[in-house]
Fold this sequence. Notes:
7 strands, 10% strand
Amino acid sequence: MHLEHLPLGDADFPELTRALWEAYETPHQPFFRAYCPILNNDREKSIANSERLFEEEYRGEFPKAQWMKVVDTDADNKIVGAALWKIYETDPFEGYDEEKVVADWHPEGSMGRVVATGFLRGVTAPRAKMARRPHIFLNIAFTIPSYRRRGVGALFLQWGVDKADAMGLECWLDATDYGRPVYERYGFINVDDRHIESPMPEGLSETEMKEFEAARAEMLPAHNSCMWRPKGGVYTEGVTEKPWENIEYGRNLLLQLERSSSEIKHPQRKQTVQSDLSQKRQQLKILRQRLDDLGTQAHARATAAANTATPESEIDASIYTSEDEEDILPTPQDSATPENTSSRASTSSANVRDDSKQTGEKEASTRSERSLSSTIPTPPSSTFGPGSVHGEEFSSNTLRSRNNIPTPTTAHTPTETASHPTKATMSTGTFSASAHPAASTPTYTSAAPNPPFRPHPSSKIGADASKELDSETSLSIDRQEQESLTDSLLTLAAQLKTSTHTFHTTLESEKSVLDRAVEGLDKNTSGLESAGQRMGMLRRMSEGRGWWGRMLMYLWIFGLWFVAIMIVYVGPKLRF
């Protein structure tokens, strides 16, 4: 067996279609009948119809849509798997209307078409809300049964993710339970998991209800996992930003709703919708301003804390050699990345101050820190923009191994040990005390000679421990406020969703009014056309024959007057 990954050729659609039917029917997956139904119990004709539809769609969308096949060169280039990738360089759901999603390959008026349409709308709904940026979409992927678990899927999946990474795009797909573990190995994460159902329409007859139930039993239920792969394929929970969950996404969605609301014809309804959207915009503005303030104040607090609680050992750390730095007690944040370590080392060396100046700044910064910690929550890393200096500092809550902690040059008394808790005991939840330089414990080196190093007296250690406890308390308060802010965002998203649904319902109700108005205009048009025809006849009689025609018309009028006078006045006097 020798597998090759190639673009699909023009003559490959018959073999491709049969391979696809074989893959989805072994084992049988009911939702496949929503896409490829068997019409009139004629399997061969239905396969030919699917082949025609696949080819027409592909020719109409190429090169934005690309079929890639995997063939076995040792089996006469047999197609053993394939994938259809669709490349969207703009928002594919701009102006999306769910009512236009129709399974028109099913016979018109059939219950199979109704069920398949409901299924398609249910599958498309998550991506219509979240996949609103340029991306690559894996539309179809399959491997025939005899070649499964032999690396076929890896070939076309690797091609797709490499293509997305080269273009700097996200990836989306709809996965079944069979394919989901495979996609997860290539960086996809599940962002929406749901069972797809197709509700029965109202007003069906008894026969239609039976047909609907039979069609639904044939195609459903179906379980769909909407999966997303971020740019680059690296996702870290709590760090990687999900674009559809941020305020900017909510602002764009709100902007689209505001543009659509201008098309509402009913004045009262239009005013109500626009007033509600205005309130939502004000809430988004308040949230954006709040997050900006939090970022600014957190940065100011971290800077003040760094200048306030920098121990003398850290002041003198700028003259340590690389060998001395290996003996410094590691902190939880030091284990994040080497870049973070070098950044914090440069920050420590930049904060060198005179002892007298440092003491004055300690008192002022401590008061500032305590006043801020009671009101300002620390935003998580996902709320910081690209220019934030805190994004990496809050991204890690792992602890470096502490098995080889060097012994300090001076022995501590039990009182000192009790009043100086370690970083591990002060770490709670997602954040740790080491996230702020103000709360870092004094670092101690081993007994190797180092003249600038001076251990702190116990009184200073106790003061630093107190500051660390204050920082830990403020972090707890910050987390609570941050959770409250997150709940507010979720509530706002739910309200936006409700407003969208209500607005959609209103537009549907307005359609009937517009239809009646169009019918009235059509009737008026036909009436004006008939009137125009009659006027044309009169114009031809009066002007079409010139002077002689007008004289004849006047004679006819005079003759009719004469006949009328004779009937009225002369007729009653006649005796027969």
